[in-house]
Fold this sequence. Notes:
Blueprint: H1 3-10, H2 14-44, H3 48-76, H4 78-98, H5 102-130, H6 133-164, H7 169-184, H8 201-219, H9 221-224, H10 242-266, H11 281-311
Amino acid sequence: MTTTETTEATTSWRPMIGLFLAQMLMSFNVAALPVSIGGMVDEFGVPPTTAGTAIVVYGLAVAALVMVGAKLGQRVGWVLIFRIVVATFAISSLMMLIGPSIGWIIAAQVVAGASAAIIVPSLVALIAENYRGRQQATAVGSLGSARAISGVTAFFIGGALGTLVGWRPVFAVVLGIAVLVFLLSFALRGDKGDPGISIDLVAAVLIGLAIVSLTLGFNNLNGWGVLSATDDAPFHIGGVSPAPLLIVLGVVLGQLFFLWTRRRTRAGKVPLVSLSVLGRGSERAAVYAMFIVVMLEAALNFTVPLYIQIVQGRTPSTPRSR
Length: 322
């Protein structure tokens, strides 16, 4: 028996339990939000679109900060940064439980999204540091099943609690998972990080603003107007809606990010993200496929519960009485 086989046979799965639950933590939170929209609308007396902002800001924070999160993990050390962001995710759940207004709820999801932006790259990095060979492949594959399990579980548990008790208790489940993940994180091993790793702040700002602009633009096309500004638009420029202007701004900022990254690479400096991952057609196809899968998942998680609650007038878990 080789050394590698011996290591694989004796490596404990206990660290993976914590990583598996960390993936469930994020997915459960995301899936629980749409189920809770109806309860938030009733409790705070706000329109569904305002309550739905909590979902939007979560995604914004994740998308805008995930690249920076990967660099922070390398700089600080994956295990330490993982524990910190799991703790902040727990704080966001506590904010959801005690928040007195919709502003608290939105702020809580900003904290959760910022935490998830670092948890996402941490999972892959920590699997690579704790497992080898077949165990590593099995561990990576299990993260996908964690997303599916947590999504279905959140719909059932969130729907039942939302109907029988209220929307807040579902986030007590999220808090419990976060505490358990934090405790299990002490079974993980990882390096201490490299303080010499630099973070390209210019690229981070460019890509962050690009994502925020694009998301706000597309998200508000219907409310603010596709071209001409509606009465709901916060402002207008010569009668033109800010939504398409934000989309154009996002595209421009995105192109500036690519130009800056290429310039930094040619200068021999470390970029925020290496564009070599898009160098071949097969690699680009893989990225596009992953984007489509995540986009469809987010669309389903958002639209199905809202359609059931708002359009059909049903509760999160019970059919409408006839």
